[in-house]
């Protein structure tokens, strides 16, 4: 059988079949349509303004590495006039994050972008290895997710950027929709498909890969021969998200459009006004100044539990009440530095200090 020609250019030999559309196309056409789709997502959502300072959340994995490459490519091709930075969070996971950060440092040289690394140890006084040693494998992703979100905002604040972009793709968003449905988490279900999120005191963040399939991101990295770290987190196999991911992959095998269909379904969900009225209003954490729906933010609650030897205090109501019964927190309790947002763009120093 003669090799098939590209369905788009009709000239070159087809090298791959797009998981998203089923088209058989050549490599150059794949690069162009993938990049163009991301560009269309960016322009239709009006994610950036000329002159924006944008931090790319960089883990060294395939998603963030492809995101850095594509953002640099589109910034130059379409003259977005963005100032791009790499921002990495070191959770302190031996044999995983220390290795992936070496990839990020190589990406810094390859893409010629300033790099800022902020560690959990520097910010919270705890590494994920130390947290897992105390609490075990159950619920460790809760600590990491809460700490990481705040660390990204604080790192971006140190850089003086206007915007954070992350490599969350269509698969990730579809998984989150499924997780929120299975948990009955109405508050998160109402906003988990938003391409842009921003709290009162936090930096705007967005997902340029919202409609990009994970398989196509992997194919892009492979055919472009990008330098990325492919090992999964050593603590993630026990995460609840893994069950949603396995279910989604089964759905995709039967119906390839299931991923984007679930994303669109999540976008179509409307939370009734009476349900919205029951949600807690956003305020400021009394201890660290970060946004919170309670007097203490989730990160401060988790950290206090760790410091006082009651790590599950931020996980269950019963444990939180037990912590409250122990009395006020000691005066020498380790706390998170107070968060003071930088509102003036361009206030960061031209030379970015790398802290590990």
Q: What would you say about this model in short?
A:
This is Cytoplasmic tRNA 2-thiolation protein 1. With 356 residues, the protein is of the alpha/beta class.
Please give a handful of descriptors for the protein shown.
about 350 residues, 10 strands, two-stranded antiparallel sheet, globular, disordered C terminus, alpha/beta, Rossmann fold, six-stranded mixed sheet
Number of strands: 10
CATH class of the largest domain: Alpha Beta
Radius of gyration: 21 Å
Oligomerization state = single chain
| CATH-defined topology of the largest domain | Rossmann fold
Pfam family, one: zn-ribbon_14
Subcellular location: Cytoplasm
Main location: cytoplasm
Protein name: Cytoplasmic tRNA 2-thiolation protein 1
Commentary on this structure:
The protein has 356 residues and is of the alpha/beta class. The chain has helices at 27-44, 62-77, 97-111, 120-124, 128-135, 140-159, 170-183, 186-189, 214-224, 241-254, 258-268, 273-276, 298-307, 317-325, and strands at residues 16-17, 24-25, 53-57, 83-90, 115-119, 163-165, 196-197, 204-206, 283-284, 291-292. It is globular, with a radius of gyration of 21 Å. Strands 5-4-3-6-8-7 form a 6-stranded mixed sheet, sandwiched between helices. A two-stranded antiparallel ribbon has the order 1-2. It has 2 domains: 31-279, Rossmann fold; 280-342, no CATH class.
Strand and helix map with partners:
Blueprint lengths: L15 E2 L6 E2 L1 H18 L8 E5 L4 H16 L5 E8 L6 H15 L3 E5 H5 L3 H8 L4 H20 L3 E3 L4 H14 L2 H4 L6 E2 L6 E3 L7 H11 L16 H14 L3 H11 L4 H4 L6 E2 L6 E2 L5 H10 L9 H9 L31
Parallel strand pairs: 3-4, 3-6, 4-5, 6-8
Antiparallel strand pairs: 1-2, 7-8, 9-10
Helix pairs in contact: 2-9, 7-10, 7-11
